[in-house]
Design brief:
2 copies of one chain form a homodimer.
Chain A lengths: L1 H30 L6 H19 L2 H9 L7 H19 L2 H23 L7 H18 L4 H6 L8 H23 L13 H14 L9 E3 L5 E2 L6 E4 L6 H20 L15 H15 L3 H15 L7 H8 L15 H17 L8 H13 L25 H20 L3 H5 L5 H10 L9 H9 L6 H14 L3
Parallel strand pairs in A: 1-3
Antiparallel strand pairs in A: 2-3
């Protein structure tokens, strides 16, 4: 028994190490790779994926899994087995022909989507999307005998169901709409003025990363077109970007990615290269990036410290005092684009996409009717009409690359962050005194202790329940948003 | 038939792509990797090496090779088969137990060697080196029924023999010693004075790289402790280093690495990821780096242009005119260390090591007598005594990591560069007019056409013979050195 487990884990660790290498190549591609190397890199990545796929479907996995009696293992062993069994079943369930057809179709689809978006022409993308939806439904059916959407969701938020998520999202929606409506009826906070030296932004952004506990000896910060975090364990790198006129883009991207990166850096070292050695779900991952970025980073206490740092770095930038600064970094504004949305409306964007993709997968909505459905729901949620497809149904890349089940994890992350924030503040009543001095140590230590160190040991909702003492719900997030924006906007 | 060849080559290309990934990780480790990531990276590299080793000894290779009739293939196919057959035979010839014992011993030996070097105590390293020599002799015997040194040499300089090399080196030695003796009897050229801004060095070094035809859209230049070139095809990166008081360290390291890098960049694109897709031998590789660095880069014509560029970048640096500058960049000086040696004495360093390691492998010299043999030969070649082991037998890492057969390729590269230089100048009689304007186009195009594009298509000596119209010999290099230093030192 023990022998099969040891063999399995040795094999698994090697696969984990190879997976880290693939991730590092992705980082290189976005930061360092000479542009002329793209065709060669594509072949290198394909070779790496081929090796990884062969390992993930290696028949020896099946033999080892059959030979192991989980009950003889300790908690860590059982958790490893749970992950490995599930991955193996999923990876071997999808017929090779379907997998290659999906890879081929989604690879082609990205160009077609980008072209359609540039022309604001959903009709020219619809036939392609229809094929992708059909293939994803086929994939979902191969993966599970149950609900098709749940089968796909499981890749990003293991053990969650669309209906459970819908119940929480449905409870959020009217409160979000009411709050958005009230806030947008009030005068808009001031904006920053002037230009912000990009080298100084990078200096302050590195300081912010360290302030939030990011270990620079096991990571690095570079510039890239899109901010991201990459890697696990001892080598977790982040990227950020700078804009001369919008310093918050850089600073809050960095804090967000530092949340992701600290989660990966702080997982128990013993789990390195095993299924427990990275964040347990996209939702829990997003809870860490969001609580760093919003509940801590955009809170009244921390922003008072950041205001001082920015004045020191950049001189006067048109904001008179801490209260004004707090309102500026939390500004709520009209807009069509998810990635530019504020803390309230971001969730409205996600709820909209979740509802539509769930309906598509469950056969309740046809691709032919998708644009109209999008536009109708958008007006209901945001109070005004979509002006063009690139601001509407064509704005996100996700569906063109076959990502169905990914969107809800963004708001699930916010929701988990809301739950964790209440528990953390209960445990640390004087936290704001620290944060006002730019000291996040107590907050990040609490998150490390209660969430991050565990990696993939517990199921996502069990982890949140264990950390907070209650089942996850939307109520703490909504209470927090109503209180925060009620105060800022004097509602 | 064709089918087995296609299958073999598809497999081989994937192995090639994975090999490129391993190389890229090595680059990352020396340039970008956070220092705390070292233990994790070691495991990632081990996983990658495990995958590569398994592919290189995969029994399917044997089956495909048995099924293919080489005579049915074209020239490229036959060359591929020649490389693949040879690699497969070598990789499967070494017993797994011996391979792991060698890996274990050489991994431990590096620390023991470094410790011994820091204490100038060869005796504390000798027992370890003795074990390594014994294991390498065992490896050589497994690889070939012939000469043990030749069996190891074949890894770095395929199809060469120690005796052929010895014949050429033996003809070089008295001429090198006589030249060294005469030159060191003359007054030393001036040195540069002042300090050289490191950012300006990096700017000029990137310009130099482009001047020598390095394609920046398929490469990049970074700083690292040791200059190196890494990768093949569309992604060939180099590193350099800077010293505030010695700008030539940066510039000539860069030109040297650009020689290696251009060779890799200029290989026929069709050979990507195949055995023909990288430089054919260490000696031919070194011929490219050396001819860029020395015959072109340290020539009278090119240095006159470089002198102007440096004056423009740094102002006055204590050198009055082009002739003085030419002497400065070609200064010959006493010293114990190979890596700091000039164009003449570098070869004396290599000849010394080659003779010793050949004797060790052939059982003609015991490790117990190695230090004394080194010191005796050093005094014969250089004219003075070694003062301590760190300046003598302990100075190079090579033997501690099991590299036997590597040293001669350095001087073989110089020798090939000497042959190529004569042929190139015969074909391009006005070359110096171009070089004096900083224009290397004709020279690098000639090398691309006659050497670089072919990758691994021809055997090393055939390639040089084809490019120069004569069998490789030491005479052109020695004639060149005697003429060049005779002029500079007024002999």
């Amino acid at each position: 028994m023990t022998n099969a487990y040891d063999d399995l884990m040795a094999f698994q660790r090697e696969t984990g190490a190879l997976g880290q290498i693939a991730g590092r190549l992705g980082w290189d591609q976005e930061t360092m790779m000479p542009r002329g190397a793209a065709p060669q890199r594509a072949e290198e990545m394909a070779a790496m994926e081929h090796v990884l796929h062969a390992r993930r479907t290696d028949p020896r996995l099946g033999d080892w899994l059959a030979a192991i009696n989980d009950k003889t293992l300790d908690q860590v062993g059982q958790a490893n087995l749970r992950h490995i069994r599930k991955s193996y079943l999923r990876n071997t369930a999808i017929p090779a022909k379907l997998a290659s057809e999906l890879a081929r179709k989604t690879s082609m689809a990205q160009g077609i989507w980008a072209e359609a978006r540039s022309k604001d022409d959903f009709a020219s993308f619809a036939p392609t999307l229809e094929e992708i939806v059909s293939l994803k439904r086929e994939e979902a059916a191969a993966l599970s005998k149950g609900n098709l959407y749940d089968a796909l969701l499981d890749d990003y938020e293991p053990d969650a169901t669309g209906d459970q998520i819908a119940a929480m999202f449905n409870a959020m929606e009217p409160r979000l709409i009411a709050l958005r409506d009230k806030v947008l009826g009030k005068p808009e906070p001031k904006s920053v003025t002037g230009t912000f030296d990009e080298a100084k932004q990078m200096k302050l952004t590195r300081q912010l990363a360290k302030t939030f506990g990011y270990d620079m000896s096991r990571g690095r910060v570079d510039k890239a077109v899109h901010p991201f975090s990459s890697g696990s364990g001892m080598d977790v790198r982040i990227t950020t970007r700078t804009s001369e006129i919008d310093p918050f883009n850089c600073f809050y991207s960095t804090i967000h990615e530092v949340g992701h990166a600290c989660y990966e850096q702080n997982i128990n070292d013993d789990y390195l290269f095993t299924p427990l050695g990275s964040g347990v779900s996209m939702g829990v991952h997003e809870s860490q990036s969001r609580i760093y970025e919003n509940q801590i980073g955009r809170g009244r206490a921390f922003t008072s410290w950041l205001f001082g740092e920015m004045k020191e770095a950049f001189g006067d930038f048109g904001i008179a005092n801490e209260d004004e600064f707090y309102a500026t970094v939390n500004k709520v504004h009209k807009g069509y684009i998810r990635t530019e949305a504020d803390e309230i409306q971001y969730n409205l964007h996600v709820l909209l996409r979740f509802g539509l993709e769930k309906d598509l997968m469950e056969g309740k909505l046809d691709v032919a009717d998708l644009e109209e459905a999008w536009n109708t729901r958008f007006e209901q949620a945001f109070g005004y009409k979509v002006d063009k497809a690139s601001n509407g149904v064509l704005q996100d890349v996700h569906w063109s690359v076959g990502l169905f089940g990914y969107f809800p994890t963004y708001s699930l992350g916010n929701l988990y962050a809301g739950c964790l924030n209440v528990a953390m503040r209960g445990a640390l009543p004087d936290l704001d005194t620290d944060l006002a001095k730019g000291d996040t140590t107590a907050a990040t230590a609490w998150l490390q202790e209660n969430v991050q160190q565990h990696g993939g040991l517990y199921k996502p909702t069990d982890l949140i329940a264990k950390a907070t003492g209650a089942e996850p719900s939307e109520a703490p997030l909504m209470d927090y948003l109503e209180a925060k924006f009620g105060e800022i906007y004097d509602l």
